[in-house]
Amino acid sequence: xxxxxxxxxxxxxxxxxxxxxxxxxxxxxxxxxxxxxxxxxxxxxxxxxxxxxxxxxxxxxxxxxxxxxxxxxxxxxxxxxxxxxxxxxxxxxxxxxxxxxxxxxxxxxxxxxxxxxxxxxxxxxxxxxxxxxxxxxxxxxxxxxxxxxxxxxxxxxxxxxxxxxxxxxxxxxxxxxxxxxxxxxxxxxxxxxxxxxxxxxxxxxxxxxxxxxxxxxxxxxxxxxxxxxxxxxxxxxxxxxxxxxxxxxxxxxxxxxxxxxxxxxxxxxxxxxxxxxxxxxxxxxxxxxxxxxxxxxxxxxxxxxxxxxxxxxxxxxxxxxxxxxxxxxxxxxxxxxxxxxxxxxxxxxxxxxxxxxxxxxxxxxxxxxxxxxxxxxxxxxxxxxxxxxxxxxxxxxxxxxxxxxxxxxxxxxxxxxxxxxxxxxxxxxxxxxxxxxxxxxxxxxxxxxxxxxxxxxxxxxxxxxxxxxxxxxxxxxxxxxxxxxxxxxxxxxxxxxxxxxxxxxxxxxxxxxxxxxxxxxxxxxxxxxxxxxxxxxxxxxxxxxxxxxxxxxxxxxxxxxxxxxxxxxxxxxxxxxxxxxxxxxxxxxxxxxxxxxxxxxxxxxxxxxxxxxxxxxxxxxxxxxxxxxxxxxxxxxxxxxxxxxxxxxxxxxxxxxxxxxxxxxxxxxxxxxxxxxxxxxxxxxxxxxxxxxxxxxxxxxxxxxxxxxxxxxxxxxxxxxxxxxxxxxxxxxxxxxxxxxxxxxxxxxxxxxxxxxxxxxxxxxxxxxxxxxx
Amino acid sequence: xxxxxxxxxxxxxxxxxxxxxxxxxxxxxxxxxxxxxxxxxxxxxxxxxxxxxxxxxxxxxxxxxxxxxxxxxxxxxxxxxxxxxxxxx
Lengths: 774, 89
Description:
The structure holds two protein chains of two kinds.
Chain A: H1 2-9, E1 19-24, H2 30-38, E2 42-46, E3 53-61, E4 64-70, H3 83-94, E5 99-105, H4 109-122, E6 126-131, H5 133-138, E7 141-143, H6 145-152, E8 156-158, H7 167-179, H8 191-201, H9 209-218, H10 228-239, H11 246-265, E9 266-268, H12 274-286, H13 292-336, H14 341-360, H15 362-378, H16 380-393, H17 402-408, H18 412-418, H19 425-434, H20 441-454, H21 459-483, E10 494-497, H22 505-536, E11 540-543, E12 546-549, H23 556-568, H24 578-587, H25 592-605, H26 612-615, H27 619-637, H28 653-660, H29 664-673, H30 676-688, H31 693-703, H32 705-730, H33 736-773
Parallel strand pairs in A: 1-4, 1-5, 5-6, 6-8
Antiparallel strand pairs in A: 2-3, 3-4, 7-9, 11-12
Chain B: E1 2-6, E2 11-12, E3 21-27, H1 31-39, E4 47-52, E5 58-63, E6 66-71, H2 73-77, E7 78-87
Antiparallel strand pairs in B: 1-7, 2-7, 3-4, 3-7, 4-5, 5-6
């Protein structure tokens, strides 16, 4: 436990920089204060050893620079909540910081003071920010900050962080608190409790003895062996005059203290204002027994439509401008410098092409993050979780699991990162593992190309079927794992519903930018590296003289793909259709490159000039064309609101070809290499196997290597099984025996998987039991 | 002036109706579950008002100015004493 914290200590922004930690209940406006203080000077990483986001930044207090750490929202230092709250607890208990700054929501002061009661027992320099004083006033409450400061012996700064009010005063108070830190006054606990704490704390080593005495008394299971006797003595002393259990007696003391203090510093008067009335009225509809779910689906549809239709306005600009600069312009420069063709192709086409791919995704993904941050800050997300809880519980998931699923239709990466809104670790892992099956927009380009050739009359239905298959497989996966390896039930729902608020634009933009930055940096690296390899493989191959430059039919790509073709034979891929396998291999890196790979292979096979795009380059014209796409796409925005995925293009052959990005050679070759049935089996495989390297990277970050490897194996296995079953039963008349054999083989494999997962589940439960007993 | 007084009658949260006020008497279930309520400010002795429900999802209640949504599973686990209102003076 302490190891993580010590490792975290090593990640100071700069040695010697004073460090303050922001702490507070969820929804108290802590992150808004953090954004106000640090602006864009923020770094986001992970807390060592866990997948909880670590946010820290630098702030200026006049001439001084300080480091600000935004700890995850926390209700108590004595347990409760998910891994994120455990991280905050460990930090506050074990880390060295110059000042702890607690942000309190002034409108619910009494409850917020419960955390203060625990923080003062840490006996570390403390400063309180009384945030949302406007909301408190709207509830008819005025908090006397000076009286609170006198009672606690620490500075108290009233603020409305959302509007930036009180920032100057906060900076001054921080500077003064850092120069002359003051320890908070301990509450006057009942005499017997005070005596027990005092005596017990005297037997605990270290600076936090007093707090640890609280912890061990309230949570006996956390007491070290050496202190068991001392704890028993303190407990006996405390319970001599009380029939109450310590687990009730100690919180009761904090609740009483918080209630008394709140009564002393709150000047009541007036009635509930418009904000309270608005929240009450909105909740009647938004949480309505029957209307809650349709409203939630409508909100999600709106987020989805605005993100993707709005994103499409800028997508072509980002795509074409980055292609002009990073691919064509860069390639041209390399050619001019005399670089050989393969270097130009690998660097400009591979790395440049990979970066181009990432950059073109910035608009829709950025907008999704923006809307999610808006919904989170507005107070709606907590309600959405409550509304969907009953339905999602049927597959063993918490209510908020549906939010990432819908985001997954756009891109699986933000969907996996979005699963952080789920505090139950089991529910979070299940939700993350479902995401790869949600059909993202990148897969649509492949569906389009195949629909043009094979399903011209009913392309819409086929694509809809593929989307539906993805959802069914995602829910099946959650159900299967929930009954085997991740056994258990979603925990009973309990969540605070903050009042509705108009989020601060600055805070929403900063939150979205931080998430987008992670996406660009981490995903960009992976795609650029894979793009380089993919452009290298078609140009070199094993010959009798070793590894040499060869034509594509004898390249490593062809050799590797041909070796893999027999694996795909049961789903109808024939030996000479190795480009289809190459497309799948490339698609494991990014689905967007499947059609690109097929284009490249078929063009090379047709003897096309691959260097043409680097020879004659008009960079300015390319950028002008890119710019022209913005007004052009904006004109189409309103017509696309009813069809954010662009499925309407399926009715129009030219539009479909354009949307798929496939060349006419590619479409011609597809028609020769597939039948409608093998095309359907191929598309099902594309839908269900590994979505892309970035998704797997995100999965590893969120749930670890083990589950990432499971997801890869499980996804490929399921994709192969479904595609094989479709092809085998579609051609049953031609080979009934083989069909039965393959079906039986798949059933046996599924049975083995089921047993292995159950065993894993039992093993984990035993481990858990052992840990609990130990 | 309206005053409120705790009744001796024990009920489950699910037996109250919308708009009712009460005081939590006990939380049945594991200590982990009680702890989850405790950190949200809900423990024996806490006063609350039922804002929405009970319905198929559960309830939304107000306690010390905080709105808290509780799923259906809690309805039978939380024992409460309803508060009755009466006019004084």
